[in-house]
Structures are given as structure tokens and as C-alpha cells.
Amino acid sequence: MRILAIESSCDETAISLVKETDEIFLIEKNALATQIDIHALYGGVVPEVAAREHTSKFFPLLQSLNIARDGSDVDIIAVTVGPGLVPALRIGVEFAKTLAYLWNKPLVAVNHLEGHIYSVWLNEPQPIFPSLCLLVSGGHTELIFMKDHGRYEIIGKTRDDAVGEAFDKVAKLVGLSYPGGPVIAKQAKEGKKDAIAFPRPMIDSGDFDFSFSGLKTAVRVYLESHKNYSIEDVCASFEEAIIDTLVTKTLKAVNRFAPRSVILSGGVSANRLLRERLSDSITDTFSDIKFHAPEVSFSGDNAVMIAIAGYFRAKQKDFSNPLTLEADPNIRLI
Ligand code: KG4
Ligand code: ZN
User: What is the pLDDT of residues 105-136, one digit of tens each?
Assistant: First the structure.
């Protein structure tokens, strides 16, 4: 089966054609136009600007992929319907609906978070169920217990800022550019991770929820009271507080839920230290649990992961009507 997937939930416009054979996924065509430079001027993503950019990018991207004009090399169309920025999501949804209607192809609505989870299905071996997923992105921080394809239980989530958001806000505080994650990680390499004792929010809360806005405030207070701070030490200590919190709580969840695999996904999963620390602590503590993370180039937003999630939705005959499908920013993982 060949899945044409469309993604426009935030600041990446993406189209991919993925071929599925016996549930192994091969990327046949993949195009992505990033808007990061444009939003960096504003210090964050501006929804209306994102929508305008998506509008001007979809047709050139489709053309660049050389997809047959009659859609004959496509079996189904998958599109991100949410969560995300409504004006941005709408552009992708309308584009997908138009193609599905004109080509008379089945249309599948995909949850962006489900897409991030399925980004690891591109690699082999694929995760075994039940799986515990730590999903860390710019908009979400969730611990999800995945019992089977399409069967999720959210066991913990952030009560305020998402991890990626905390990276982006702290980057702004120390005068670094958007997106904050990669630039903080780069500065952190040169700093001392134990230089500043930033808090580990909710690490002993007894549940699996997170909270990162207090950590961001702790960084701000530190910067205000230490005018000659070392940016490298601030970044290293902040990154360490985040990683320590995420790894500790994920291990607690593994102990409680006894999954057979652990998945790390979402934009923040590009963080090399987080990958290493989570992977090492899982494999050192639980010899029978496999750790999975996407290729770094597929940790951020892309359409390949939407194609894979779309395949499993299509397998469950979970199709949408191309005449009525709408973006749904509040869609939940169920
Ligand atoms: O998944 P994603 O591309 O978009 C959303 O769905 O939100 O995640 C983007 C987030 C941004 O907040 C960015 O700062 C963060 O992922 N990020 C990182 C790294 N690379 C991207 N955070 C920490 N370390 C990184 N290396
Ligand atoms: Zn994302």
C-alpha cells in the first residue's frame, strides 16, 4: 500500500509518499519546507504567518515529488488534523481533502501525536506491545501507555509548559535564537551540568505528571541575580534538570506499568543526551525492555510519521469524508 501523507500542524510543510509492505515502511518520496527562519524573526511561531507559508508551499512540494497527476501511485491519503495551530492545520486538511476528492482516494485523519509515536516504526525492529512512550515536543510532554495499535492511555502529562516550550523560553531568556532546543544543547556541551542546582519539578510527586514553568522561572531568577552568568553553565544545568526529571519519571512509569518496550519521540527526542541517558537507564535496569527512538532527522515534524500512523488507522478502516473533514486542534489520543 502507498500512503501520501500531509503535515502542516506547526512550522513545517511536509508531504511524503511511503510504501508499506508487510508493515515495513519505505520512504519513496519525501519533501519538507521549514519556516524556522521566518518564525525566528518573531522569537516563536506566528500561526497566521505559518498558514500563509503552508499555502504557498504545498503545490510546489507536491510538484517536486513527481507524483502522478492522476494520483495513480497513491492508495490512501493521510493528513494531520490536530493538535496544532488551527490556521496552519486547515491548509493541510483542505489540501488533502482536495486531492482525496479529485483522485477518489480514501482519506485518513491522523493525530499529530500518534504520528510522533509512529516515527519509530520506520526502523527495525519495531516496538513490541505494550509500550511506554515518552512524547516530548514543543507543545506536548506526555507519558503514554500504548497497549496496541491505536490503543492509548495517557498516564501523565505536563500541567503547564511542554519540555520543548521550556527549551524555547529559556533560550529566549539567555538571548539565544528559536528553536531553543538545539542551541541550548550546543551551549550545554561546553558547560558544567552541576554548576547550578535548578529544581527537578514534580520528581517525587507520586504521579506521572510534569511541570516545567517553575524551572523556567528558576532560570529567570538566577539570571537576574547573577549578571555575569556563564551561558554554557546555565544551559548545561538547565538541560540536566530536564533530563533528570524526564528519565526519573519515565523509569518510575516503567516500574509501574511493566511495558515490553519504551519509545522516546517528538521534537525534543533529537536531544542526544536525553536519548543516551534514557536508553542507558532502561537497558541497564531492565534487560528485557527494548528502547526505541526515531532517527534524528525524523524526530521533528515530518510527513513520513503521518503516513505510518495513517496506515494503521486505515487498517482499522478509520476513514474520513473528504467533503466534511475539519481540522481538530483538540483531538485526543484514545
Ligand atoms: O515535535 P516538534 O518538531 O514540534 C511540535 O510538534 O511541537 O518539536 C519542536 C520542539 C521545539 O520546542 C524545539 O526546541 C525542540 O523540539 N527541540 C529540541 C531539540 N531539537 C528540537 N529540544 C531539545 N534538544 C534538542 N536537540
Ligand atoms: Zn510535532
Answer: 999 999 999 999 999 999 999 999 999 999 99
Atom of ligand 1 nearest to the CA of 266: 1
Element (H, E) at 39: helix 36-40
Q: Which atom of ligand 1 is nearest to the CA of 138?
A: 7
DSSP 294-323: --GGGTSS-SHHHHHHHHHHHHTT--B-TT
- Of the candidates 127, 143, 114, 129, the one whose C-alpha atom is nearest the C-alpha of residue 252 is 143
250 confidence band (pLDDT: 50, 70, 90): very high
Query: Is the CB of residue 306 less than 8 Å from the CB of residue 81?
Result: no
Task: State whether the beta carbon of 259 lies less than 6 angstroms from ligand 1.
Answer: no
Note the pLDDT tens digit of each residue in 308-326: 999 999 999 999 999 999 9
- CA of 41 from ligand 2 middle (Å) equals 21
Which residues 6+ apart lie within 8 Å of 75 measured at CB?
Answer: 1, 2, 3, 105, 106
